[in-house]
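thread: overnight batch results

M.L. [08:02]
morning all. the overnight job finished for the chain we discussed friday. pasting input first so we're all looking at the same thing
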Amino acid sequence: MSTSGTLPVVVSRRKIQLFQRFLPFLGLAITIVTLCLLRDYRSGVVCEVAFSRALSGFVGSWTVNLRRRSASAGAGVGTAARTDSADHGGVPVVSSFVGAAGECLAVRRQKFYLYEMPSVASLCKSGEALLKALKNSSHERSQQMGAELFLHQQLQDHAWRTEEPEEADLFVLPSILSLGATPGLCPGVLFEDIVQRFDEAISASPFYQRSQGKDHLLAMMDWRAVKLLFWDGPGRPPISTWVEKKILQNFTESAPSIFAAFRNTTRNFILSGKYEKEFLTHGEFMRPTAEGVRSITMPHLAPSSLKQCKWEDAQSRVVCLPSPSEDTFDAYRLNRPYTMFFIGNGNRHEIPGSRNVTDRAELRRQSKLVRPLVIDRLGDLHPPNILCDTKPQAPENATRPNCVFGDGPDSQQQITSGCNVVGHSLEPSSVRRMLGESKFAIHTRGDDASSSRVFEAIDTGTPQLFLADRYLLDVAPFKCEVDWRRVVKFLDVSAFTTDPRGTVAEALEGLMGGDGEEEDWRRLWEEQRRAARELLWHVPDSRVGHNIVTNAFRVLLREDRNRLPRAIDGH
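M.L. [08:03]
and the structure it wrote out:
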């Protein structure tokens, strides 16, 4: 019995372990709060994002530990609990806080100026004629250039836009260069003439001259225009080959010097396109020697999305209907007859974005295997599936049957997996319809880790299984706005190439489960649905233009937090 008037303190080993796990996050939170109190708020940076990410990091770590203990307790002999890396398909799991303060700076209202440059209508076609030409294009890559129409519209109406360039901290060029480089969209107009007019207008601007374009943003969607203007290293082919390959409509002998001058003028610009800095600097093309390139990845425009759009004369803008998809998870789950969807070129190989020779060799090896394995080895997993090769060029693929698309999954005549699409190409509308009838879309890398089909799947409300290890490093857009590890399900590509059926079967079992255990599946569907307005150009509440501008301001803030004026609340 104690005579000191105090009760004996007994601390269990379990409580000590819990305190030890929580202590690092408590210290991290205290550090964040201290830094916030010392920070100069004129930078327009707020601390809520960093704190919330640190908190989510603690909660996420606690949840992972609970799952590990549960898995370990229920695992039989020879069964190992899954690690964080396995949960994300071999993608390294980085702490939620890493990059929060240094990368995902929360930008409040700032001001940008949109240059009054030659318009699409004055150089090419009117807005209505241009939209019609894009919609009727036989090549879906040309249809993707419609993203530049949406970007211009969204920035014209943006609340951060100022008409007074003296008030602006960011200067944005209207992005019509990819449209200008697309054969057939600007008949009778040389791409080099468009580039020269842009170059002359920019160079004469006093706002360009004061910083040599360090506070300027140029967005370009098309790889053709990007290659023509920014491929500045060994191996650059002569421009004549671009015409031969129908990448460029025509040119004169002045084109190389015009492109070089534009490349020099824009050398300090923030660039927004399909690729991130990691790929721009380490890849096989596009400024391979430009270590200082500043880049923002922007999403593709899903080709079939344009079919839902029309030109409104009264508003002088493109207006799109809402994408038809299920409003509830249960409606989605019950109404889609096919399980997995992949339609694509089975022979497309990635251009790896790694400088390491070993990594490049491995990526090339994997890229040759992944698509054929998807098409040939997964057809009997939770059938029926749609797994088709649109360009079966390899001799070993010639033995596949031809695909037959009947009246639906119950049709006795149809062949939709392990088959070749021969004799015709599927219309984007047909691809979209079948994607909207599937529970999951499989994304694999091709020329690179990205694809317009990623955003097609988001638009149709189809959750995705990702077989593209470098997606987060190279091409994932808006990583501060979109938590990609929650929006898609990453699978380990190395594991897939070794055991394709087992890898995908495990993923499907973890999502679809049994006996009503579908919470992870439901969460995946909900997270992708929630991310749609951050990533889709054509939806009524699209934030793509806003996200591009916000990330451009982040670039400026990271370089000099005191250069921007006091932040203003609101968007």
